[in-house]
Amino acid sequence: MFRVYIRFLWAEGPENNELGYRPLYPNRHSNSGFRARYGQFDLIPMTNVLTIQGGLHFDPAENWTLGATFLYAEQDNNTVATNDEELGIEVDIWAEYRYSEHLVFNVGVALLFPEDAGEALWLVDEDLQFLGYIQARLLF
């Protein structure tokens, strides 16, 4: 299977004493079926945000899935101490191996390129941020 996708998210920010949009239960890190990844760094807010995301994933073998996502995010309304609404760009590359019906292994890397609003919101500097992970999921 091969899939290419693009997704857009707009969650309104606060304005004129209104809180803006707040989803109850966003599905952020699903690895199967509907891919609802909003970044492995888990820094993209689910309110006051405008994002565009593109990605692809494919199965090179029966038990393997490889994929990559690209995510651009900016604030809907500027709320941090900067004139820039851009939060930044995140790139995730990941692999999944399904050992059995009940055991799945994941590995991945994430690269975060923060912009001015992201630096202020996440308290990071302008340097490239790196995250790597290895995960085993036991399904009951």
Explain what the structure shows.
The protein has 140 residues and is mainly beta. The protein has one domain. It has one helix and six strands; from the N terminus they run βββββαβ. The protein has one helix at 116-122; strands at residues 2-11, 49-61, 64-74, 86-98, 103-114, 129-138. Strands 1-2-3-4-5-6 form a six-stranded antiparallel beta sheet. The two termini are 25 Å apart.
Entry keywords:
single chain; 140 residues; mainly beta; 5% helix; elongated
Secondary-structure map:
Layout: E1 2-11, E2 49-61, E3 64-74, E4 86-98, E5 103-114, H1 116-122, E6 129-138
Number of domains: 1
Number of helices: 1
What is the CA-atom radius of gyration, in angstroms? 17 Å
Oligomeric organization of the protein chains? single chain
Structural class: mainly beta
Molecular shape: elongated
- Main β-sheet, in a few words? 6 strands, antiparallel
Q: List segments where confidence is low: pLDDT < 50 over at least 5 consecutive residues.
A: none
Q: Report, as a whole number of angstroms, the end-to-end distance.
A: 25 Å
How many strand elements? 6
Write a concise synopsis of the structure shown:
With 140 residues, the protein is mainly β. Helices cover 5% and strands 49% of the residues.
